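Quarterly update from the structural biology core.
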Amino acid sequence: MDQSEFRSVTNHLAQSGLTLTHPMLGCGILLDVVGKQVKLPVGRILELVGLSVGPLCMQFWLSADTDVVCDVRYVAPDTQVLTFILGGLTENEREQVSDAVQRLIQRELDRTVALLVDPGGETADEHDDALVLYGRLPKGPRPDRVQFRTDRLSAVPAVLAGAEVTDLGNGLSTVRWP
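Predicted structure, tokenized:
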């Protein structure tokens, strides 16, 4: 995802009320390795994502005091994983963010591999990557559900074994395990 593509992502999320620009400060905020806020111009954050310099942790904002942490990491030169952390949000806020991400996925369906929903945060990143990118089920906890592009289901037969698959009719199918 280059800078302009990430700008498109952030603009789309902003239409749903999830903005990279802090409403009061007028800048973007990255989190450093200890979780301290680092204020930067939004353009610089977009540039860093576009350069694929390494994992980045940033805050999106629902309001001046309500943020959603988003981790951006790179698992291949052309594959980025965006993880939105919804802990600490109210049910309505979680729903707003989930709806925004779902609309983003629909808009970017041709470039999307999957959407994992793991409210408890029980699965490790490497297990999620193995599941989505390589079609291997984790031996431990699994996400509550995964939405794959329906046209990609045949590429992940091991994932489907024993799973409940529901075609959502919008180019995505939900996969759940008992």
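The first helix runs from residue 3 to 15.
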